[in-house]
Amino acid sequence: MRGRPVLAAVAVIGALALSGCGGSDSDSDSPAAGAELSVGAAYIPQPVSDSMAAGFLTITNKGDAADELTSVTSEAGDVTVHETVDGTMKQVERLEVPAHGQLVFKSGGNHLMFEKLKQQPKRGQSVAVELHFAHSDPVTVKLPVKAATYQPTTGHSEHSGHSGH
Ligand SMILES: [Cu+2]
After folding, report:
1. How far does the centroid of ligand 1 lie from the alpha carbon of residue 105, in Å?
2. For the whole model, what pTM was predicted?
3. What would the pLDDT profile of 89-143 be if each residue is shown by its tens digit?
4. Ligand 1 mean position, distance from CA 35 (Å)
5. Are 49 and 77 in contact (CB under 8 A)?
6. Tell me: the pLDDT tens digits for 38-61?
7. Ligand 1 center–CA 165 separation, angstroms
8. What is the CA(8)–ligand 1 centre distance, in A?
9. How far does CA 71 lie from the centroid of its chain?
10. Is the distance from CB of 69 to CB of 59 less than 8 angstroms?
């Protein structure tokens, strides 16, 4: 009689461990996996198109665990995440925010792609987006619309793992 409850408990634990791998449940009570995210250097260069724009920002992770940007949403229009490889941009499903590191969106590299904008973003306005992560809570960021030639002055040139253009 003693063996059976133990076996049942093992089975339950196994099921919990398996379901923990799904990762789609953004509202679970488990603590964030150690990622500590903040967002800076956010902007949108004044777009020439009235329905499309690119957006840039830097996500800094001061925590001990990596996280992943899984999607970006905005009431202003459709947003997708693009990376640029050999001068060609392509949509990506997710991008890693490394532990004690940064995920940098910058001209010529990763960018947010706005499409089907309801109205053309103008200088002085800002566009709010919501960043969704695999582990951390969503973060809402306002991207101010800057001049088309605007360059942030936040040491972007030193981002790691992506040298040479
Ligand atoms: Cu793009």
Report:
1. 11
2. 0.73
3. 999 999 999 999 999 999 999 999 999 999 999 999 999 999 999 999 999 999 9
4. 27
5. no
6. 999 999 999 888 899 999 999 999
7. 17
8. 51
9. 6
10. yes
